[in-house]
## 1
Amino acid sequence: MPPADRPSDDPFPEAQVEALLAPAVHRLAAPTSLSPLPYDLNAGVPDRATLPADALLEAARRALAEDAAAALTYGGQQGYEPLRAWIAGRESRDARDGAAPVTAAHVTLTSGSAHGLDNIAATFVGEGDIVVVGAPTYPGAIRTFRARGATIVESPQDDDGLVPSALARVLDTRRMTGRQAKLLYVQSNYDNPSGATLPLQRREAIVRIAREHGVPIVEDDAYTGIDLAGPPLPSLFSIAGGRGVMHCGTFSKTVATGLRVGWIAAQPEIVRRLVFMRFDNGSSPFLHRLVHQFVTSKAYEPHVARLREVYRERRDASAEALREFCEPYVTFRTPAGGFFHWLHLHVGLDGRAVAQAAAEHGVAVTPGAGYYASGGGEDRVRLVFSALPPEDLREAIRRLGQALEDVARQIE
Amino acid sequence: MPPADRPSDDPFPEAQVEALLAPAVHRLAAPTSLSPLPYDLNAGVPDRATLPADALLEAARRALAEDAAAALTYGGQQGYEPLRAWIAGRESRDARDGAAPVTAAHVTLTSGSAHGLDNIAATFVGEGDIVVVGAPTYPGAIRTFRARGATIVESPQDDDGLVPSALARVLDTRRMTGRQAKLLYVQSNYDNPSGATLPLQRREAIVRIAREHGVPIVEDDAYTGIDLAGPPLPSLFSIAGGRGVMHCGTFSKTVATGLRVGWIAAQPEIVRRLVFMRFDNGSSPFLHRLVHQFVTSKAYEPHVARLREVYRERRDASAEALREFCEPYVTFRTPAGGFFHWLHLHVGLDGRAVAQAAAEHGVAVTPGAGYYASGGGEDRVRLVFSALPPEDLREAIRRLGQALEDVARQIE
């Protein structure tokens, strides 16, 4: 065999790999990479100090003591039934009068909610299908739907999230062109990146509009649990009586991102198809049982209450620092939960220039343009407040203020 | 909201779900389901008693003690570097003279090797692309490639696996039609379902033929480690000097199916694209670190040696029972590893009829027809010897012998 470091002899050169790739590969943008800077306000990750390591080890011990063989053997594509039943109980909390109860049959477990979106895309999206998303929205969702051939159509958001009247127009237009949307992707709580939360009336309007158009809703609820202004409003899934909505949740933010345990709640006819379109022999039953042990233990509720305290303190400290150090250059609305501030830059300031200047001060923030499927967002920057303690946030935002000054000076 | 149990009012009825499904859903057969029968020789699962539960709990403890925050936070799409480096060491064992060393950059971690196949399909398979597979082959691979739009083309296998001369003809024919194959899927060791192992000369011929046609090889090696007749031969990946082969491995059979930790080893240009086509925010770094702790502990090698003993005993006990109870009706070749006997039924016996009759005797076996993409295999039955202890295998095979008698009597 010729050694691979003699490129001229390479039996399988780079160009050949490139020529063989699926068309989808060429359609996709690279995902945002992490920033090795002293102050990272870029990665939307939980606080590391509040990770419940001891409680999770104890949960692992109990899961293995209870039934090691079941925990360590294939657990089926739909996942561990008691955890699905526990999730169903949570999903039932805001059930409307007369709605059928949510049961374990309404839930399928996924490797985080990101994988849930991929499972939904595999089940519903074919080449050329239209998926409607907010503008802005989560870029991971855009990539996931595009990978399956979707054409992304945007519907505008304001400070309260997706605007129902605009959504109705977008869906009407789609209907008139004869290519109705296949899915509507919505983040109802603490939107990534905008932090917006849909008010109740909008939720009801969105469910009604989607239903009138026969479009199923993908409700991505990755940040629920990190509720910093009281309990969340009823989900679109609850408002719809569980019909025509796929509700994606995760334990990433309330337990740990490193476990990769999430779920989709939907009507059983849909769950059956989602399970059918799994090709990974299911997620880890060991992790399902570990999470189930933890969430049914006495440690869970105090843990989540503690998380809310930690993140509320960080949200408030960062908001205060933004007002103190950045106010001449940015406006923002304090989010009711989640991990993000979505800064509106004052006229003339560009998000990429601000992110570049911030990097020079050792601070990573994310330019807004990456959150729009078809352009826009140049006057926006996303800032993560979840990952750093208040004093580091304050210092990072002080530096961000300097970066804003630098950029403002350049354009004067 | 109308209650969902009044179907006439259902705002999102079954028919609407059906109408919205991606075309791929309609292309796929249902996966084989597990059989709730007293003797299950259907599910290709490891022995439950040999699962190293205590050692894995200890590995979890060490993984969390070492770096709880890293174990419980997103670990990146490619996965935990020290585990990738350990796998690279294994992949290097049979490296040919002059081949570039296999490093952590050549490895990406997946949620089991099944998920590895899905990752490969996402990266290389577009609508209408040709994927060549053995006849018979693993139905999960057929489903996974078809879900991405692949057209499956079969290449015949005999008792030694894929036949090189026939493969060359299949690829030549593809080339002449102007639609060259995109991927060649091969199981080199202890093929599921046939148990076949490719001899060294065939391996070299297959690498050469695939290379001549510019077709990358997907080498599925899920059963390596369960080596019941000495160490395995060099992989296609090693023989190819790491170029043009994606080598899929897993800890499912040597550690536990319930952990869902597998990998793909390939040239770095390919690994980069595989990582790019992940949409699940990576697999669990907690499980990666747990597996790394276990495989680098003193417990690992004795554990795998013990597994080989257990499975060798089961293979031999089941082979003996087959000769004693089923010989008038079946022939088979004892496999060099893995979990399966692949029975050739004597003239006139039909695999589905035999499986049906066996079920009436309380024994689940799998008819061969499901392992062929385009028909055939009616004279075959697959039998799993891994999951039951020798005495249960003997009883199950005694009953299978009775079922064979029943079927033979009916066709006389």
## 2
Amino acid sequence: MRSLKVIKIGGNVIDNPEKLQSFLSDFAAIEGPKILIHGGGKIATKLSTELGIEAKLIDGRRITDEDTLRVVTMVYGGLINKNIVASLQKYQCNAIGLTGADANIICAKKRPVKKIFSKEMNQAIDLDYGFVGDLDKSSVDAASLCKLLESGFTPVFSAITHDGKGQLLNTNADTIASILAASLVKQYETSLIYCFEKSGVLMDVNDESSLIESINPSVYSDLKKNGIINEGMIPKLDNAFEAIENGVKEVFIGKSDALTGLNQNNFGTRLTM
Amino acid sequence: MRSLKVIKIGGNVIDNPEKLQSFLSDFAAIEGPKILIHGGGKIATKLSTELGIEAKLIDGRRITDEDTLRVVTMVYGGLINKNIVASLQKYQCNAIGLTGADANIICAKKRPVKKIFSKEMNQAIDLDYGFVGDLDKSSVDAASLCKLLESGFTPVFSAITHDGKGQLLNTNADTIASILAASLVKQYETSLIYCFEKSGVLMDVNDESSLIESINPSVYSDLKKNGIINEGMIPKLDNAFEAIENGVKEVFIGKSDALTGLNQNNFGTRLTM
């Protein structure tokens, strides 16, 4: 079976033009079929501020209202995505920039209204997250995605999906990466790679040299029990192990500027079964 | 040979949400392979105004500076393109939204600096149009575009291209439509359709019932000689006949809300050899 790499970069790379160019050059050099998923970064927040659109929060939860959706569609789906594609073309990588609506590859469900207890209002409220899309295993049209990969294109996804009924939806980029990887395990031996600002999962979050090279579910359980895993990492790692349970061969978590190590299996922390 | 329809819509449709939905529903219903190219409309101008970006003109010629390119990349490549794609998906048309950078389909040349005589400054000046892309017959990678068509996707292009060196470029949508149609004549029997605000080419520009049903080069020459063709139409028609000279079977020019007539060859003015 051919191998496939699904790589996610976050806002810290997007926001730094030099880092981004260096990353894209490294990404282009990775051999074989690959997919890139990019998050947003601060450009959308900056544009919202310039347009006088205030971030809408209910009880600390971010809401995607109509204005915010317009901004992220412009910034993630247009500005960031198309500039990444043009840069990858410069590095001889035949990128094609997509949202989940394109070729109907990711069809999400609008997050349902939830009853929560609002601390702010000291009462139960119906919380509507707005135009946010949630994903499950049935969300991805793997056949369409494979057609693009088999044509020799490198899909580049922004974190926008749709509901199949004409509505675009804001969607978590980590989840998109994980769901895309899991949906292609029948066609490819799939690796999922999360790039972030640290060298990987660390024994001591303040010591970049304390990298944990590999973690399996039993090591993960011990690390959590002993309070070694930083709380912010837990959703990321839960997400990663879920992808592995769904057939993804391995998940790497590491620093975006170390991507070239991937070819030698030398990149950050490796999670496996 | 299979037939292919390359259809261009302008800003007047984009700016009217009801007209746009009605057009997209009609477009989705057209049988066989097809491509959509859309222009911009007033949304980009509105966003520029909100952001305090002034339209830059030199001697009446519009310049695409860096700020303007950012705005059109967001609005044409993101907001408009992705909403059109999501709507087409609703109408069961498997659209994929693209710029010329995606899959390297349209590689343009940045318009060279031109020496012009400036009336404003009453002297010769070097005019730099900024980030504007010009196209010729070699600009299109027909093989990549055919892979998308053969996969059953409907490409939807915004009027953004790239130079292959990492730079996005603002490009005339009419020209994109004409060049795309001409580049596919070996693989498809190609028709090019321009949708605009009139019923077609009119004998009397103020009388919608004075439609000229068909024009060939000799009729065109007579109409021009007799001053019947409205001056604003001449570049559009020159463009159309150039496409026909390059192997496009026919060009239709008509009103966007009459698109369903295409299936019966009953749409606006038909230009042929």
